[in-house]
Write a structure and sequence with these properties.
16 strands, 8-stranded mixed beta sheet, 32% strand, 320 residues, single chain, alpha+beta
Length: 320
């Protein structure tokens, strides 16, 4: 296996639909905290970029969304695309979540994959989600009294991402030899790779083979997962991982992009899923808000200040 240049997940990013339903789903139903409210930094269309996670925005807890409610712009879920968002819950909490989700009008059932009990449901825009009982996860639960979650039930953070591919063998060298993940299971359920992390065995990438579905869309459009980001921790590790991937022939690794709170590079995997490698800048989420008040106001990066009025006018109304 390649040298570990990543240490867990940094975040997962989806293109959803309405901003209000998205905010309510993650903060009120799933009990995450608002970590940052800003806008999409790429392109010219005014779109929110919303971040959810633990109260202080710890790495490996962050889910981010682009509520992409634009006429005629909607994605197609399919193969050769990231498919499932997975978060970790305490062992024994699955029944609580099945009951809670169904009571709130979100159909949920229990299932099992790779020996772990899961709660299976979907975001209001249709993106599959799972809450996974992982006995190896020692992170503190993200208790949110306002949402009614407790230490016995609350989400702990990211468990992983599921990827659907037409040819499952196409991913192995990229995931193991390139990114440096470890193959933990290989069965008719698919392949499970663990993400190196000093916090314990609590995060994975799961790959399944899907030869029946059409190709999923890769553009920024509602109803699809856009990318998932692995945490390199430092710029040095990020640059080293870029060099390793390019040396293997994956030469479409992007140049570094400034996301204000972190620095990112992107690479399209052979199976289609978009991987990001990222590290958080020293100021982190407190770069433009007080540390005890992150995620409470709508903020813009310095290079968008001259577009504030234009962007505000084009953003969807929502009660955050």
């Amino acid at each position: 296996m390649a040298q570990a240049l990543v240490s867990g997940y940094h975040h997962l990013t989806l293109s959803t639909d309405g901003a209000q339903e998205d905010y309510d789903f993650y903060t009120k139903t799933l009990g995450l905290y608002s970590v940052k409210r800003t806008v999409l930094f790429d392109g010219t269309i005014p779109v929110y970029h919303l971040y959810y996670g633990s109260k202080h925005g710890d790495a490996s807890t962050i889910i981010t969304t682009f509520p992409f409610k634009k006429p005629g712009i909607y994605g197609r879920r399919g193969t050769n695309q990231s498919r499932t968002i997975m978060q970790s819950i305490p062992v024994g909490a699955a029944d609580y979540w099945v009951d809670r989700l169904n009571a709130r009008g979100i159909p949920a059932t229990k299932g099992s994959r790779f020996g772990l009990t899961r709660v299976i449901f979907a975001h209001p825009c249709g993106i599959p989600h799972e809450l996974v009982e992982n006995p190896g996860d020692t992170r503190a639960p993200i208790v949110n009294p306002a949402a009614g979650t407790t230490a016995q039930t609350a989400i702990r953070g990211i468990y992983g991402a599921g990827v659907a591919v037409f040819d499952i063998d196409s991913m192995n060298e990229f995931v193991e030899g390139g990114v440096g993940l470890k193959l933990e299971a290989n069965s008719d359920e698919g392949r499970m790779y663990s993400v190196p992390d000093n916090l314990g065995p609590h995060s994975v990438v799961e790959v399944i083979e899907d030869r029946a579905s059409k190709q999923g869309t890769w553009m920024l459009a509602g109803g699809t997962i856009h990318h998932f980001a692995l945490n390199t921790g430092t710029e040095e590790n990020q640059v080293a991982l870029k060099a390793r991937l390019e040396g293997m022939g994956f030469t479409d690794v992007s140049e570094q992009k400034d996301r204000n709170y972190f620095k990112s590079m992107y690479v399209r995997s052979p199976g289609g899923a978009l991987f990001e490698i990222a590290w958080t800048v020293p100021e982190g989420w407190a770069k433009d808000e007080a540390p005890d008040a992150i995620g409470q106001s709508l903020v813009f990066p310095p290079w968008f200040e001259d577009r504030r009025a234009e962007l505000m006018q084009g953003l969807e109304a929502a009660d955050f």
